[in-house]
Amino acid sequence: MTVRVLVIEDEDNIADFVVRGLREENFYVERARDGICGWRLLADEKWDVVLLDWWLPGEDGLTLLRRFRKENNSTPVLFLTARDAVSDRVRGLENGADDYLCKPFAFEELLARVRVLSKRKNRTLTTVLSESDVSVDLETHHVNRAGRRIELTARESDLLVYFMRHPGVVLSKRDLYENVWNDQYDEVSNTVEVHIMELRKKLEAVGARLIHTLRHQGYRFGDKRS
């Protein structure tokens, strides 16, 4: 079953290393680059494990953690930080952190800790993602709309899942390229447009348009009225 991990880390080299490694181990991973974006994702979405840097632009990790726990959210949080003093570790743990890993670290150790923390989450992880009249089985990758099976390529399926995890949110080409293709944004490439065109054709063969274009902004997934 899919484990959802949020990485809140402003250092690109560390974040890329962690995100790529976890995705290769079949975790669903998203990244926030600062405390403001991090809080939005913490507050608006459900996570199984949060990897949190201490020093962040916008709002530091300790403040985020305190706010998160005040919301009575018990999601496991692992601090990733260069602060290795015992007093700092104690502060982190006393304010609600479940674990602590000092930089630099080996990915194998991080992976082991994430797996342990994910098992602490006392809830059933769903394998089916549903939005509007579309459903995706995240284990079998079967896609259905209005009860009819739709055959998608692997990339189209990844693109659809990303849209469905962000219903009603305007997603730029950069957002889609970096999070679905897991690569640096290429302003010249028309890869995103081509895949959205093909995905639209397949979805609209069954029902109304769900992927809407907002000029100079990006794309939004959902019913037109939403």
Description:
The protein is of the alpha/beta class. 39% of the residues lie in helices and 20% in strands. It starts with a strand and ends in a 5-residue tail after the last strand. The model has no long low-confidence stretch (mean pLDDT 87).
Task: Please give the structural blueprint.
Blueprint: E1 4-8, H1 12-24, E2 28-32, H2 35-44, E3 49-53, H3 61-70, E4 77-81, H4 86-94, E5 99-102, H5 107-120, E6 128-131, E7 134-137, E8 143-145, E9 148-150, H6 154-164, H7 173-180, H8 191-204, E10 211-214, E11 218-221
Offer a quick outline of the entry.
This protein is of the alpha/beta class and 226 residues long.
Query: How large is the share of residues in beta strands?
Result: 15-25%
Structural class designation = alpha/beta
Strand order of the largest sheet: 2-1-3-4-5
* Integer count of domains: 2
Overall residue-averaged pLDDT value: 87
Label the CATH architecture of the largest domain.
Answer: 3-Layer(aba) Sandwich
In whole angstroms, how far apart are the ends?
29 Å
Key words describing this protein structure:
226 residues, alpha/beta, Rossmann fold, Arc Repressor Mutant, subunit A, 2 domains
